[in-house]
Amino acid sequence: MKFTEKLNSAWQHADSQLMVGLDPDPRRFPAELQGKPDAIYEFCKAIVDSTAPHICGVKPQIAYFASQRAETQLEALCQYIREQYPQLPIVLDAKRGDIGSTAEHYALEAYERYQADAVTVSPYMGFDSIKPYLEWEEKGVIILCRTSNPGGSDLQFIQTEQHTPVYMHVAGLVADKWNQNGQCALVVGATFPEEIAKVRQRVGDMPLLIPGIGAQGGDIEQTVKAGRNGAGKGMMINSSRAILYASTDDNWREAAALAALETRNAINAVP
Fold it and tell me: Which of 31, 168, 186, 197 is least enclosed by beta carbons within 10 angstroms?
């Protein structure tokens, strides 16, 4: 199944456009996991088990695993998700941005080692940095466009000769030239709903990965109204810390499930 087909199915299956970001920080783990050699795997596995009924996918951030020398735990986690929750797309948040054979190996890492359904990439080096991923036609390629951090404006708001901000130029390139196989999506931050609306208008029904709600302060109602497509779908609204660390007490699993349920319901409640 292609990434976009799997994503569409997930939106319907759980009636959800909420994606849970897996950013495991051992310093914030509950007491029962402290000091365990496989704590990262066990924590993320429990989060997935707790939230799976309420989400449309999972987004492991590779840096949180790599910094702890836990890439093998990430491999095991991805395998577990594929086996137990095959309906959930796995988006590897890696933000890769190199070219040539290096990009080819980054694609192999994402799509073969971790068997992710999609990966986030940076377009700063142009089409050469995107092409190796597009060759995996069944996989998703999620391209940074208007990011949720304030400093993104340093580059993304620069005007082209056509007086178009760079982030809109990227949206146009992806929509008009790079998305030939219908496998692309864009990253747009919930902290900038006006820009989300402009990107949505420019790219039509293309999926949008929207980080920035929860701990980063993005407004759910503004995000949904700006980002949904004509069918009322089209979004992977990511929340990480607000769900992962909803509690560090013995009820942390239940707290994560409740946070995911409430966030999904808040997204669905937007008129």
Answer: 31
